[in-house]
Design brief:
The protein is built from five helices and no strands. It is mostly helical.
Length: 88
């Protein structure tokens, strides 16, 4: 699981993305954070990854990447595919 994340997903996030979102407690390149099964008031499970996806799509703010070009459909699709494969 972690190998797929490290190889295919973590590199999608730039150093700037990681620094900016890390300041808000969002650990984009950490498998344990992104695959955490806990939910929150918005999502019943895997809230961390689901919030990141929503920010990438612009349905939550701050939109990611902050101050940069939004991800194209291919990158978002790659992240969504990882979520479907590894998160229930």
């Amino acid at each position: 699981m972690n190998e797929s994340f490290a190889k295919d997903i973590a590199p999608l996030f730039t150093d700037g993305d990681t620094r900016c979102m890390g300041g808000m407690g969002v650990r984009l390149r950490e498998f344990d954070y992104m695959a955490d099964p806990k939910g929150d008031a918005v999502y019943p499970d895997h809230a961390n990854a689901r919030h990141v996806l929503a920010r990438l799509k612009g349905t939550e703010t701050p939109r990611m990447p902050p101050g940069g070009e939004p991800w194209d459909d291919d990158k978002i699709g790659q992240f969504e595919s990882w979520m479907r494969a590894w998160l229930p």
